[in-house]
Specification:
Length: 401
């Protein structure tokens, strides 16, 4: 709609090419007698207005629009060389990619902090870099374990017979995976569930209460890797106090993009990761989030960044990255790709008075130029995909000087 609006404004302001030339001369003080506008013809030159940029910007985004070649209306309708454009380009056939390469950090993704919920003394901590799996102690307080279980619902209430909800199903699923049975995995905490919990508590050396206190379990989506220790053995701990931080166990790449490049980051999209030794491996976007940096105070203004988490895709990619614990890498994003299409430089596009875009086709036999309507496709790398009658590979089109 913005594209159409730009063309409508052009018709209102410029009229014919001759009127534009006269108006431009009048503004600069040279006021020749105005002649009647010539009748429209197939070779009448249409002016290029800066308003075209608004239409392209709305249609394809600022990154592509920045390369649009535009001519101001003043004096552009006639040329001293007989009406030929000051420069030309060829229509080429190629594969067009809307891509971008950004710096990334190879690590283990987002770090999560485990805070103490049991008052007491820290009696055991894992080593930094250690892997903790379902049913194992994440740390110990007063020599009793705080246990890692798998799930996405945080422990927020005591679970006992009669409790219902998705956190009950989550707990029962973990009990089943740990080898306990005699109950149905569902949303209801029954006496059969309580019996399985007592058996599990006995295995851990805990009091066999048949209820699960929220401070005794930590839920994570999968196994975790201990990232950093926030306290030490022998230190007092309690509600809200940091104990340790953890990440996923699989290596991942973290990338920060400008908001203008948000189109590149779609969850599930494939990317290419270049490791420090030059090896290229496949990756896949697993998470996209927008973060606001408030700055360091003073006159610093907040900045918004798009944070992208990239998982290494496949055993081959993970094996290639194993030797790098933390490293800087290059990540190549592709937002769109068009194979075997006709393209021209974006600057070759012309806004047509009747609407849409065209290109100025140059007659190789010296017969001048004509404007040919085109359909536009993907914009990338300063070029744009075009199609239309009379457009073929090798066609010469006009360009601004």
């Amino acid at each position: 709609m913005a594209e159409a609006a730009a063309v409508t404004n052009e018709e209102t302001e410029t009229g014919t090419g001759a009127e534009t030339v006269a108006d431009s001369q009048a503004v600069h003080g040279d006021q020749p007698e105005r002649e009647p506008a010539p009748a429209p013809g197939p070779r009448r030159r249409r002016t290029r207005r800066v308003l075209v940029a608004l239409g392209v910007l709305a249609a394809v985004g600022g990154a592509a629009a920045a390369g649009v070649g535009l001519r101001d209306g003043g004096g552009s309708g006639e040329r001293a060389d007989g009406g030929l454009p000051p420069a030309t380009a060829k229509v080429t056939r190629q594969t067009l990619q809307d891509s971008h390469t950004a710096d990334g950090e190879l690590g283990y993704g987002t770090s999560t902090t485990a805070t103490g919920r049991v008052p007491g003394t820290v009696t055991w901590l894992p080593d930094s870099g250690e892997r903790v799996t379902r049913g194992e102690a994440l740390y110990r307080v007063d020599d009793e374990p705080v246990v890692l279980l798998y799930g996405t619902v945080p422990a927020y209430r005591e679970l006992r017979p009669g409790t219902e909800g998705r956190d009950v199903r989550q707990l029962e699923g973990n009990l089943k995976a740990l080898g306990h049975d005699g109950f149905t995995v569902d949303d209801t905490y029954t006496e059969a569930t309580a019996a399985a919990v007592r058996q599990w508590q006995a295995d851990l050396g805990l009091a066999e209460t048949g209820t699960v206190a929220p401070q005794r379990v930590v839920f994570a989506p999968a196994a975790v890797r201990v990232d950093a220790l926030e306290t030490e053995e022998g230190a007092a701990t309690g509600p809200g106090q940091r104990v340790l931080s953890y990440t996923a166990t699989a290596q991942a790449v973290t990338v920060e993009l400008d908001t203008a490049d948000r189109r590149l980051a779609e969850t599930g999209a494939k990317v290419s990761v270049e490791l420090p030794d030059g090896t290229r491996v496949d990756g896949r976007i697993s998470e996209v989030s927008t973060e606001v940096d408030a700055g360091n105070g003073g006159d610093a203004e907040p900045t918004t960044k798009v944070r992208v988490l990239v998982a290494l895709d496949g055993a081959k990619a993970r094996a290639a990255a194993e030797s790098y614990v933390l490293a800087s890498v290059d990540v190549s994003f592709t937002a769109g790709e068009r194979e075997d299409v006709l393209t021209v430089p974006v600057a070759a596009l012309v806004a047509l008075p009747e609407g849409g875009f065209g290109v100025e086709v140059v007659d190789e036999g010296g017969g001048g130029t004509s404007y040919v309507p085109v359909r536009t496709g993907l914009f990338a790398g300063g070029r744009v995909e075009i199609s239309g009658a009379g457009i073929a590979e090798g066609t010469t089109v006009g360009m601004p000087g």
